[in-house]
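Build the 3D complex.
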Amino acid sequence: MSSYVTPDGRTIGDVLLEVKNITLRFGGVEAIKDISFDVREGEIRAIIGPNGAGKSSMLNVINGFYHPQEGEIWFHGKKRRAMKPSQIARQGIARTFQNIALFKGMNTLDNIMTGCFTHMHTSLIEQAIWWGRAEREEYRYREKVEHIIDFLEIQAIRKTPVGALPYGLQKRVELARALAAEPKLLLLDEPMAGMNVEEKEDMCRFVLDVNAEFGTTIVLIEHDMGVVMDISDRVVVLDYGRKIGDGVPDEVRSNQEVIDAYLGVPHD
Amino acid sequence: MSPDFLYAIEVLLNGLMAGVMYSLVALGFVLIFKASGVFNYAQGVMALFAALTLVGIMNGQVPFSHLINAVFGTHLHDFGWQVPALAAIALTAVVMVFFAILVEKLILKYLIGQEPIILFMATIGLAYFMEGFGDLMWGADIKALDVGLPKGGSLWIEENTVWLAAEGERFFGFFIDKLDISATIVAIILVVALTLFSQYTATGRALRAVADDHQAAMSVGISLRAIWVITWSIAGFVALVAGIMWGSKSGVQFSLAFIVLKALPVLMLGGFTSIPGAIVGGLIIGMGEKLFEFFIGPLIGGATENWFAYVLALIFLVFRPQGLFGERIIERV
Amino acid sequence: MYYREAGDFKTSYRADQQNFPIRFDRIHFWVMMVLAFGVVPFFINDYWANAVFVPFLIFAIATLGLNLLTGYCGQVSLGSAGFMAVGAYACYKLMTSFPDLNFFVVVLLSGGITAMVGTAFGLPSLRIKGFYLAVATLAAQFFLVWLFNKVPWFYNNSASGQISVPRREMLGIPITGPETAASTKYLICLIIVFVLGFVARNLTRGRIGRSWMAIRDMDFAAEIIGVDPLRAKLSAFAISSFYIGIAGALFFSVYLGAVEVGEAFGINNSFLILFMVIIGGLGSIYGSFAGAAFLILMPVLLKNVLVSGLGWPSDLAAHLEFMIMGALIIIFLIVEPHGLARLWAVTKQKLRLWPFPY
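Done.
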């Protein structure tokens, strides 16, 4: 099955990322056991599962914080060698964190500008003199960042130190920073955790818009089943480090093992 | 055995003794660090301050006499009495407790929850303040300290080790300072006492609880601030002991504050959270720097003791960042 | 309404990101520059140059350097004086080995050499963090001072073990050595400070500065946006050491003239520079100048008031200086960890609204 078009008109392309038989151990504990799944270009892929199922560990494997003992990761049809997170970022994988990881000493604008790091290339000397290339580059990316600021509707907090922002806005700024890297693959670790309904709706809209407008492939971890079933194209279900389900939301919803492990056995 | 070899052993033994002295200072660090997460750079100055206070009390000096004389044009110097050593030590201990309370009230209270590096820099400030304060209070001149500890080389050891070398060789037995021996004994007593205290008393248990997790400890009703006062008092007492030992050895003077610089590499080696680590680290550093100076020093110009400990600790840290006995640091993302 | 920014609108990103976005600040800055370059040199005498201006400018460079490393990149170093010694000895060796080399080139090269040494000592920062690193940098401090003390090659086998600066002229005016005029010393330092301050500002507002701050604020988050911690930390160490090396070269060649390494570059100077950074404000260019000025002026002031004014013995003043310095550090860390720079910003905020409370 190669590319196809979803009912809402988006084109889902070939496989962008494939994890094959990943096993990750911490000492004697197996956090992830022999997990494989793929992510297609342009798709929104959700990873769900109870606490401690290995979801965040999986993201950490994909963006290089953890190095799995076994298994392979294929990105863009090529097997990826062991790399540092910064190198993986250069390949076009960006992410956000479950506990917000913004740069507290900077304002919103600088935080998002930092996201452009991999695209900026002027040398130290040019930076030191600031005349010419370094300055032009700075303003070029400032313009791009302003687009993202407009897109996520955070114009008013442009120069506010991020530490002073409310939780929901911090999450949005973190998303903006990830977007500034113009990623091919965006990993979102519980982007809606701890938000109220309104904020969740906003965030859902942004995730869908990012996917639709920039064509960014998105992998997200989320606990809110309603959100997951609504916005994702396909869902992977993990439990105790194993994969117990994989497919379109409706398939997963009716999978008995998933219901037992995650959605809970109905009391009657 | 050849005299060269025996000299090397003598150097080794003296290194171990010096190491005990380093450990004494390092011990104070570990106590404070475990209980309050503060890396107390002022520990060395605390030893200096304690020793200054002890000498001052013993000699019946008038505190701040220089300042008073300068302001009021008087010529005060001392009260004209002598205080016996033990009473003076007890009084100094009280002063150190008072000091601990002040530190908690004036500094720590306001810095709860700050990053460790900020706390560290605050203690550098504290060190500067206390150094000036101690000198202002008791005067900056070098003072002799004699609390009645035995001094000089131990003849008994010399006589009983002469036989190690063959007849006619230039070797007169090991030279070991009695003061070093008493320091070793005191250090052992101190460590045993502290271990017993922290393992078998309620206060000790509270201390360990705070060391493990501040918030959890507070939630079961342990007063964090009281614990801090207690640890700083104990650290002050350890500083007093270190101050007595160092002060008896080389006089009470400004350079006493620099023993802190000797204790830092000991801590890096031993880990900041381990009492045995402080002891073993101290011994390794003491031994290592004396042997290095003995064998390598003459080849490269000597006075290597200034940096050897640091370079050793640095190299060691690169390979084992948590130190010899420190808890393994696991970073979670 | 002494201080106003109302009506100061920006129409381009360039205008929004300029050095002094507020017009009042811009005017203020240029007035200061005119005073510094155009007025002070005509009135400066030996006392003012040696007691205040020259040490202030030199320590401002060192403070800038350490602030780049500690304030911007978050790596605390206690080895600054050791690196200053590298700059000083590099300067001495270059001046004596290549007598025809232009003095400014020598100073630049000294900075470059120090940058290399600093990078080497920065390598452990990749494995160890926080105060472990701070303590590890003490290794640099002690080792370097010992090295310059013990290896005769560094001081050209001079009997005293000291190094003293040879006389050099530029355009017929003596610029180093005992005959140098106070105004010349001042101007040399001022020009270098101006250039280095400008460079520091540029580095911190662009890509590299942001990569440092990212490492400082949250190192793993910095990695996922593509910042290589190795490059960020080592570049911070290199540039910081470059600044400190230049400060050391000037300290030796322009300010002191003759140097004994243990005295001029002892650990107390390392702490002094760190204090300047803290009091001035971590992560602030302006703060680096404020901190250096404050800690250079305070002892001069104390000495004048207590010793000359009240007739106290000078050792008493020295003790008080220690106490005040220590107390200030603690107070600043408690009340305002961002130092004088933040206090100034708060004052501006107040002035903007004056005379209304809010």
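The radius of gyration of chain B is 21 Å.
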